[in-house]
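Last lecture ended with a question: if I hand you only a sequence, what can you say about the shape of the protein? Today we answer it with a concrete record. The protein is Alpha-acetolactate decarboxylase. Below, first the input exactly as provided, then the predicted structure, then a couple of comments.
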Amino acid sequence: MSTIYQVSTFEAFKNRGFDGCGSVKELLKHGDIGFGTYHALDGEMIVLEGVPYKADGDCRVKIADENDRTPFATISDFKPDTYIEMGEFTSISDLCRQLDEQQRYQIHERCFIGRLDGCFKEIEVHSVWPVESPYEALDEIVGRQKCVTLQGITGTLVGVRCPEWAEGKNFVGWHFHFLSKDHKWGGHVNQISGGQLTGRFKSCNQIECVEHH
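The predicted structure:
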């Protein structure tokens, strides 16, 4: 049975659950591709090929420490069973629509986790500087974050799609984090355009919360 593992739930996280409750080291025992955030929203997490990257509030990337903690993260082992070739897309909604059309027989039943690689015409990302307790609402924090627009950049989208049965556990629909090929830039994807992407995804039929210590 194919499983997506996660630390905490999206419901708990969005209700100011920003305290780290599991370490990066523990998270990586459950997979080598995924994303999330760090304690007190200290940057966006991108896990690619087993390496945990951290995009700071300026969307500049470094490798995270294995003792860093996460309040919410999604991960799985990367054993793709679905392969996609993408043509032109003009926006994040267009990209999501085309991906759903290619997976239309399974999108109501299964989760997908994987990567899209290629050159992007334009991509807007954001990340977060750490916040202090008592925490504000997530929307208020994200709403004032700096956005960075990157043009003509090669890299990888790490993506997860969850169906409606996952509501409360995870984000319903597609969710992407970006990492540039040179590992210098990254963050949560707000907007995007481009074409000619190669996608590899794994379909999963369950979500399991991991135990943390």
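Comments.
1. The chain has two domains: 3-76, 82-202.
2. The mean pLDDT is 95.
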